[in-house]
Fold this sequence. Notes:
The protein is of the alpha+beta class. It contains 7 helices and 26 strands. β3 (about 75-80) and β4 form a beta hairpin.
Amino acid sequence: MRVPRLLLYSWTLLALLPVPCSGAVLLRVPLRQGPLSQTAGPRGPSSSSRTRRGASAVNFVNMIDNLRGKSGQGYYIEMAVGSPPQKLNILVDTGSSNFAVGAAAHPFLHRYYHRSLSSSYRDLGRSVYVPYTQGRWEGELGTDLVSIPHGPNVSLRANIAAITQSDRFFINGSNWEGILGLAYAEIARPDETLEPFFDSLLRQTSVPDVFSLQLCGAGFTQNYSAGSSTVGGSMIIGGVDPSLYVGELWYTPIRREWYYEVIIVRIEVNGQDLNMDCKEYNYDKSIVDSGTTNLRLPRKVFQAAVKAIEAASSTEQFPSGFWLGEQLVCWQVGTTPWHIFPVISLYLMSENRNQSFRISILPQYLRPVEDVASAQEDCYKFAVSQSSTGTVMGAVIMEGFYVVFDREHKRIGFAVSTCHVHDEFRTAAVEGPFHGVDLEDCGYNVPQTDESTLMTIAYIMAGICALFMLPLCLMVCQWRFTRCLHPLGAGDFSDDISLLK
């Protein structure tokens, strides 16, 4: 396709102007608690989507219970950075790909990374900026030696973003000082040439290409008390630990290696199908993300799910703001009516593309909220929310399961976690197979635009650029002419460069 000449002129003019550049925008939800569980056992001879316990003979005892966190504030693991080692708590996030640590004083940080004290730090001379749906951070890229005290017995040189400025990123009281992005290089910032931590680990060591997460939340359980909000879990790096799950592991293919994208083929509330076109569930993607608290659903799916949940729990009346995540609901301690809230089931395409399996969660989608309830009350927030960037299976999903990120075989496994919450009559479950046809078609594909449409768009953009560039060029020329006539002195400095931001 030819690019219109006017557009080329506009681009050339833009390239000559001293406009500061920022990294590509990555829309993410605010960082919150996310369950950490994945399993990576070798395929059986029949490549079954189920793997029986005992598939791994490796001893991961040093990694069990290596996660800490608080409900809604994220799960973190201790890491050692630099020479001599500086120990920091790092949020485990399967929904991003940068390893970034606080490197400057911040009101919410008890400690931070001192690059000047590390003899092994190497500055890369590049900056990085990562915005989220809410919040952002920016910093400077470098490399340093990194190890995980309660992980593999290895040390490696990894890329590190030293966070120098942030806005609504760090969380007061969360006790973590950085983020470990475990997704693929395609979504790394500033671009995909920056090698993510796990890729560096694989390249420099013999650790297998798999990790698994068991996130043990402080959510729905008859034994829950508001004082036990600190949670834990396990991150098994390099394999699957059979002691962390019960039953069988069921695997769903990783559809695309950027986020951990999967395909949802059906959603039920209390066994009732939402009866939607399955493409709606994956519009515009469905991902497994330990760095997100909620189950986030596309608008149409969210509305249908809330309607079904509201109908199932209609024995009590809730304010409309509760379903939108804007209001809390509270009950006297020990009287939360868990039984009125329905089970939510997600059906995921299995490795046999004409079969699916079902993961079912109890009302752990009611998230306990600290520092609000009195000693006589338990208060909760509705942790299912609307999304404009696809379905996100966050902490409220992962906390019921042991989740295996089997990157080597491009699949994600689910089994019932040994620390899942349950009541007297119901339990989390992973069940299958369920038969279907062309389940792969449920995945969302970005519509392709033909060449004539692209040409039209290009001409329109060229015209818009011309309209905006003409007055901007006149202002820049006037500014430069004024600078020539009146050089800036010490007493008459003005920040005219802000015109170009």
